[in-house]
Amino acid sequence: SKGTYAHYMQKEIYEQPEIIEAALKDRLDVESGKIDFQGLGQHMDRIRTCSKISFIACGSSYYACLAMQELFETLTNVTVSIDIASSFLDKLSHISADVAYVFVSQSGETAECLTALQYCQKRGGFTIGIVNVVDSSIARLTHCGLYINAGVEIGVATTKAYTSQLVHLVLLALALGAGNDSTHDRRREITKGLQRLPEQMRRILTLDSSIKELCETKLMHKANMLVLGRGYQYATALEASLKIKEVAYIHCEAVLTGELKHGVLALVDDNFSVVMIATRDRSFERSLNGYEQLLSHGGDPIILCQEGETAFNISNGHCIEVLETVDCLQSVLNIIPLQLMSYWLGVLRNNSVDFPRHVAKSVTVE
Ligand code: F6R
Fold first, then answer.
1. pTM of the predicted model, to two decimals?
2. Can you tell me which atom of ligand 1 is nearest the CA of 113?
């Protein structure tokens, strides 16, 4: 039931801190840094000795993989590739016995993922599932796997499954990197960051009414939007832009901040809404260039930045301030205000936010 919430999507956005808290309590021993994956634990050595980890997913699940690609590369000494399932099939990808093929899917039923899974298995590939729905096809057919335990997600647009995927991917990267002395401090920093996440997520949810107001006053009548992000936050931009298309029915494009000047800037004028994700990390200084370019061409971007940020000259409420965490975890926090933005835009435009037109929760046809 929706309880006191107006929509399942709203309820699922609000459930996120609890779900992440429960997942961490279940899986992570903060003191020792040990991670308990139950069944999957027995397969960790095999995955560690693979020559490559190949992630395969669709839609938001693909963006979750994209968000964590760099982390896998730095914590494990294994090459990482990520493919959208349909493209993996289109390419007639070569299957090798020493690659770990990881299928990430909320429903565990997505048609292209299932076809790609069968394609891998027929050619002797070792397959792993990261799935939410218990006993779903991908959960049953993969050699081993991990449930993200986000609970039943009813809203067609994924929210709580996305952040649970992110956190479980972080845990998997940490577990695969365990024992590597050169990354000890980095793993410790991430483990501590994880511990703080649920509380930070709760605080970020208190932005709800200000985001609703931003949607009412600035965004709900726009026909086009851009979401800019770079580095770890490019995946957040893609996920936010998909959410806005799907729930608000607003044409919204995600652009890598560094690519702005290579063409997209031509779109920008004072009618065009731009949301720029600019929380502080290694690429922050370069994001400032994108900000200057927007301003000098009449853009009036909404900035998603860290609390207390002074690098931007924002006077008109065009600012969404989030708490700071470790760079690779920042996407878990940053997506929350953008989920709320898509939710409120959908509500204000009288859309069916839980069941958007033309899309299904579980996409069982290719
Ligand atoms: C977007 C959304 C979809 C799914 C995609 C994959 O809000 O929910 O893009 O992420 O259809 O679905 P799963 O994860 O069930 O394989």
1. 0.97
2. 16
* 237 neighbors 285 (Cβ within 8 angstroms): no
Ligand 1 centre to CA of 304 (Å) is 24
Nearest CA to ligand 1 atom 1: 157
- Please work out whether the CB of residue 133 comes within 6 Å of at least one atom of ligand 1: no
Listed residue (238, 268, 267, 265) closest to 253, CA to CA: 238
Q: What is residue 70's three-state secondary structure?
A: helix
Walk along the chain (366 residues) and give the pLDDT tens digit of each residue. 899 999 999 999 999 999 999 999 999 998 888 999 988 999 999 999 999 999 999 999 999 999 999 999 999 989 999 999 999 999 999 999 999 999 999 999 999 999 999 999 999 999 999 999 999 999 999 999 999 999 999 999 999 999 999 999 999 999 999 989 999 999 999 999 999 999 999 999 999 999 999 999 999 999 999 999 999 999 999 999 999 999 999 999 999 999 999 999 999 887 789 999 999 999 999 999 999 999 898 888 999 999 999 999 876 778 999 999 999 999 999 999 999 999 999 999 999 999 999 888 888 888
Q: What is the C-alpha separation between 177 and 195, in angstroms, rounded?
A: 18
